Amino acid sequence: MQYKLLGRSGLKVSEICLGTMGFGQATPWGIDEKSSFGIMDAFAHAGGNFLDTANRYQDGQTEEIVGKYITKADRDYWVVATKYSLYDNKTNPNASGNNRKNMMRSVEASLKRLQSDFIDVLYLHIWDFLTPMDEVLRGLDDLVRQGKVNYIAISDTPAWQVAKGQTMAELMGWSRFVALQVEYSLLQRTPERDLTPMAQHFGMTVTPWAPLAGGALTGKYLRNDPGRIKEGSVRLNDRAIAITKEVLAVAEETGKSASNVALAWTMQQGFSSIPIVGATKLSQMEDNLGVIGFKLSADQLDRLDKASAIDLGFPGNFYKEDGVKLANFGGFYDRVEK
């Protein structure tokens, strides 16, 4: 296992992050504590130290399971990321959202479930389009100053809001976001229009969720195993099938699993990226660990890029036009360092 710095920080985290959303049995597809411990054991044995959870996962059971595990193990070894924003009850209008009141309430509850005095990384989970960014940032910075949170991050938020937040935090001397969590995979490349370039500019690590597109990129749907995916999903359409077939072709060439190929692609995109890999079976965890030390060749990356290419729209496509390059660089485009 190799380790990366999380954003513009000195925090060292494993090159893959273990997603724990399936730990607990509040949903039919969740798993029990013993199975969850087995998966975390395998991850730790491979050198993994980065865990991702949230207050809402399995109605709080996930944080409880993670808390029991890190308590019996070495708490300081683990980098635990959790999230606030999503509701944990439906009787209180302030038991959800990005507001300071919910933030403080949610963090206190998470600390109890995690049996910890601090959270290593706290994400804002989903932007609510109600709470001002300065309220969010000041609340998060207060948590850092109180020692309850070490680093802050943000998930599922428009690029312009994140950019606004990073700039405001820098000007005010508040804590800045070290990571951006978004859906990103060979089947979901739209973050390349603005989110991933923005993260790269601000030195944020991208932590892709669903890097295997809900299992679609493993090829299991082509084997008539739809799992929890509903008919009509973009993960089952003709484009998804074509991309998955290319992933399977590269997997056959390399002798690696399709999962390893799909994960390696997210890790070789030219910006800091640490995929969040979920598992509800020990065999899945063991398979995903096969990506450690595995690199796709330039040709393989190119084939996967072409198979999964998206329309960047404006202004992405505009900047690629030869006439625009000529006008902007006077014929020196290919001779100027980018």
Task: Provide structural commentary.
- It is a single chain.
- The chain is globular, with a radius of gyration of 20 Å.
- Helix 2 crosses helix 3 and helix 7 packs across helix 8.
- The strands form two sheets. It has an eight-stranded parallel beta sheet, with helices on one face.
- It folds into two domains: 305 residues, TIM Barrel (Alpha-Beta Barrel); 27 residues, no CATH class.
- It is built from twelve helices and ten strands.
- The longest helix has 17 residues.
- The model has no long low-confidence stretch (mean pLDDT 96).
- With 338 residues, it is an alpha/beta fold.
- Helix content is 39%, strand content 12%.
- 41% of the residues are buried.
- Strand 4, helix 2 and strand 5 form a beta-alpha-beta unit.
Short account of what is shown:
By secondary structure, the chain is an alpha/beta fold.
